[in-house]
Amino acid sequence: MTAPATIHVRPYQPADHAEVMALAPRLAEWVASWRDPAAVLTAVHGWIQDSLDALRQPGHAVYLAVDGQAIVGVVTVTERAHFTGQVDAYVGELAVRPGMERRGIATQLMNAAETWAAHQGLPFLTLETGAANQPARRLYQALGYREEDIRLTKPIPPRKPNTTQAGQDQATI
Fold it and tell me: Taking the model in full, what pTM does it have?
């Protein structure tokens, strides 16, 4: 899919802060239904703010998709150690303004992140997304990304702990 000619990607600048933060609710979509929506929204605002604050340090970048004067997308990328110790590039957040989907904007932003990673000499670009986020998963697959890790979640009902004579809680196993 080709992006409209008016969309271009550029680095974040401090004057962009409010428009970038306005994209945060997009990251709260497609989250598992058992998660608290208010807590999710608070977390995603924090993720973006942390990424913006980290720009003062080496190994971090934020790119924006701009249509005219309007910011229509954001991607954050940083260096992150894999559990093997290898340092890879990592996309923390990717969001496109509602109504601007399926125009190639996310692809342009991911291309910017990949270019940044290549210039940093990093061998891989990794990211995480929700299992239910099928639109994002289809995009990443189309861009050549492969699943590497799977997180499994099971709800555990509260149980009354057993109390020992010393007054310490001990789980029954």
Answer: 0.86
